[in-house]
């Protein structure tokens, strides 16, 4: 929602043409964040061989997808290739961890998804005002936490207060 505004703030108007690429790369933050936990758990279970497979699959798939997508879409294609390679590699490491230790994630996501949608609505509405982008980001973060609280998300009990 704020990709263009963040691009302007962080890099200036000369980089505004890269906004679509920036938006795709912002999605990689979610994949990398989750993947870090999963990869560390796999390493904690002494499964380094799978970890190397995960890294190699990510590397090779990124290279192959770059060769396919860059000629078609330029740097935007490279961003798509990076996101797809991260998702593919994380799917492999996810399956490995599930085979080692059973865990559930999907049943815990609805509250977070609805909180994210609520935050998105707040950010979208505030983006129509003249508020500075960093203020909108701060209010959006507060709105997300508020929605989680209203939905009685149990993970909030682990947040120090």
Q: What is the makeup of the main sheet?
A: none
- Any low-confidence stretches, pLDDT <50, length ≥5? none
Per DSSP E runs of 2 or more residues, the count of β-strands stands at: 0
In N-to-C order, the SSE pattern is HHHHHH
Mean pLDDT: 92
Q: SS-based structural class?
A: mainly alpha
Structure report:
By secondary structure, the chain is mainly alpha-helical. It is built from six helices and no strands. Helix 2 packs parallel to helix 4 (75-100).
Descriptive terms for the model:
single chain; 161 residues; mainly alpha; 6 helices; 77% helix
Task: Describe the secondary structure blueprint for this structure.
Elements: H1 3-11, H2 19-44, H3 48-73, H4 75-100, H5 109-127, H6 133-150
Give a quick precis of the structure:
With 161 residues, the chain is mostly helical. It contains 6 helices and no strands. The longest helix is centred in the N-terminal third of the chain and has 26 residues, at 19-44.
């Amino acid at each position: 929602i704020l990709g263009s505004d963040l691009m302007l703030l962080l890099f200036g108007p000369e980089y505004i043409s890269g906004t679509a690429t920036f938006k795709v790369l912002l999605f990689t933050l979610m994949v990398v964040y989750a993947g870090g936990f999963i990869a560390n758990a796999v390493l904690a279970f002494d499964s380094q061989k799978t970890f190397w497979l995960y890294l190699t699959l990510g590397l090779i798939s990124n290279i192959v997808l770059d060769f396919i997508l860059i000629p078609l879409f330029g740097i935007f294609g490279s961003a798509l290739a990076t996101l797809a390679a991260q998702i593919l590699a994380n799917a492999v490491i996810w399956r490995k961890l599930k085979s080692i230790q059973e865990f559930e994630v999907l049943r815990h996501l609805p509250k977070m998804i609805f909180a994210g949608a609520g935050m998105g609505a707040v950010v979208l509405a505030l983006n129509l005002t003249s508020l500075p982008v960093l203020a909108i980001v701060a209010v959006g973060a507060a709105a997300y936490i508020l929605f989680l609280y209203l939905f009685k998300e149990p993970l909030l009990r682990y947040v120090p207060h």
